[in-house]
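Standup notes, protein team

Yesterday: finished cleaning the Aedoeadaptatus ivorii set.
Today: Bacterial capsule synthesis protein PGA_cap structure.
Blockers: none.

Input for Bacterial capsule synthesis protein PGA_cap:
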Amino acid sequence: MKRRLIVWILAILCLAGCTAPAVRKPNATNAKKTPPPAPPKTVRVVAFGDFMLHRPQLDAAKGPEGYDFKENFRYLRPYIDGADMAMINLETTLTDGSRGYTTYPVFSSPKEVARDFKETGFDVISTANNHAYDKLKDGVDYTYDVLKEQDLDVVGTGKERAEPLVKEVNGIRLGILSYTYGLNGFDGVLANSENPESVRLLTRERVQEDVARLNEEGVDLILSYVHWGEEYRKEANADQKEKLKMLADAGVALVLGSHPHVPQGIDNVVGKEMTTFCAYSMGNFVSNQRRNNMGGRRTDVGQMVTAQIIKDESGTRIAEFMPKPLYVDKYVDGGLHYEVIPAEAALLGEIPVERIETLRPVLEETVADHTVRISPDLLLSNDGI
C-alpha cells in the first residue's frame, strides 16, 4: 500500500513538471509586445465675438495714466486661464492717439487694447472684419504691429498679405483662418491698393487656397472666424448657411461667426470629409450697444464658445462644442463701467459677481433666450470621452 502511494506521488510530480507554466516567460520573439496606444492630445479653445469700442467706453476706460480695458474681462478670467488657446475678434483698428480716436462709423481705438488682451491671456486675435480697413492701409499696419509687439498671433490681416496661421498647441497643429464679407465701403480702395490681399475677404477661391496651403503644412484641424450675415438679425440667413456648407466642404472643422451684433443659433453640417460645427454669430463681446437704445435688439448679449479638440490614433476631431451666454453689464459706480458676465455661471454661483442680485432678472432672461436659441441636439459634450 505504501509502495503504491509513493508511485502515485511520483506520477503527480512528473506530470506537474511536464505541464506548461500559467505565465510563460517571454522569449526573444514574443518579448516584442505591441506598445499601448499613446494618450490622446487635447486642446481646449475658448472664443469670443466682437470687441468694439464706442465713445462712452473710451471715456470709461480713460484714467490718469492712460487707458485700461481689463475690467471688461474681469469675470471671464477663469475661462481664459483654463483654455489652451483663447481667441477674440477685434472689430476696430488701433492707434497711438496722436490724431485722436474715432468711433462709429469708422473706428480707431487706443493701442492699450493690445496690451490688455495679452495681460488677460488671449493668444489669437482675429482682425478680418468690416472695420479692418477703416483707417486704410496705415490702420491695418499699425494694428498688426501693435498686436505682434505684444506677442499675439494675428489672423485675417497682414502688412503685405493676410496669411493663414499655423499654431501648434499641446502637440496638435491647428490651422486658423479669418475672413470678412466686406470692408465698410472701402472694398474698392483695398482692391486698387498696392496690397489688395492685406485683408482676407471671404470667397470660395480664397478659402480653397488657404485650406490647401494649411494641409500642405500638415495641420491636424482647421478653424475659422467668419464675419458675415445681417446686422441685428437673430437667425442665420441663407447666405450664411450656403457659405457654411462651402467652408465645410473645403475642410474647415469649426466656424466662429461674427458681425450681426446679436447672438444667433448654432449648426453642424457634414462636409466632404467631416462634420463641421458652427456658431453663426457670437454677437458682441463688448460694446455700448444696448437693447434700450437699439430698439430692443439683444446687442448687450453675446456668446462664449468653448471647444475641445482631441487627437488620437483615430485622427483629430472636435469632442466638445458648447456656446455659453454672456451679458454686458454697464453701470455707474464712481464712474462708468463695462463688465462682461458669464450668465449661467453667475446665476449658479460658480463665478461670484458683485452685482448678482441687481443682475439676476436680466441674467435669467439672457439664459432663457439662449436656451431657446440653441438646440441641444446640436451641442457636443465630451462627458463620455
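Follow-up from PR in the comments: Residues 52 and 91 are 5 Å apart (CA to CA).
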